[in-house]
Specification:
The protein is mostly helical. 64% of the residues lie in helices and 0% in strands.
Length: 123
């Protein structure tokens, strides 16, 4: 496994950065609306929909609990590391809204409890 681009302490500081929290709350709400628009044939839809219903108006506590998983998402971690600082405010500012949305979309199934798809069997 490759070395982490930031120390665990620096990642923890980023996960607790107050300036990132409102953006995470809004990104969660945006992705929740996207899930509501999905077909009910989407794999894991009942669990995905239930999480969307639960976090449609995410509280600060819900957003804060998701921050730890978000900041270790590879693209967010890379963006924060590219800021070339350990200042959590500057690292948070280096993360784009699109990167936040992508990280939440990528983690939605795991947070909602949808199991990963089984790998296709090779015949």
């Amino acid at each position: 496994m490759p070395a982490l681009p930031l120390t665990l302490a620096t990642m923890d500081a980023l996960a607790r950065e107050a300036s990132l929290l409102p953006r995470v709350r809004m990104a969660i709400a945006v992705v929740a609306q996207e899930v509501f628009a999905e077909s009910n044939e989407t794999p894991g839809y009942p669990l995905r929909w239930n999480l969307a219903k639960t976090v449609l108006s995410p509280t600060e506590e819900q957003a804060a609990s998701m921050m730890v998983g978000l900041v270790v998402y590879p693209d967010l971690l890379a963006a924060a590391a590219a800021a070339n600082t350990t200042d959590p405010v500057a690292m948070a500012a280096a993360i784009t809204d699109e990167q936040l949305l992508a990280a939440i979309r990528a983690g939605w199934n795991a947070v909602s409890g949808v199991a990963p798809a089984a790998p296709a069997e090779v015949v």
